[in-house]
Amino acid sequence: MRRFAISSWSLDGALNGGLPLLDVPAAMAAHGIGTLELCHFHLPSTDAEYLAAFRQTLAASGIELYR
Known about the structure:
With 67 residues, the protein is an alpha/beta fold. The protein has helices at residues 12-16, 24-30, 48-61; strands at 5-7, 35-37, 64-66. This is Xylose isomerase.
């Protein structure tokens, strides 16, 4: 299976410029990108609530997290 993916590193300017990471999965899905490679430093929080919300946005958008 071929994957069309994006790394959060390529969004560094946008993420550091105010784009919330939680908005990224929906934007990816809208552009036909199905896989996200996430750089750990782009996570604004590692608390359980934030990670659950992030997992939910990935699932709702149909985005696979590449590990």
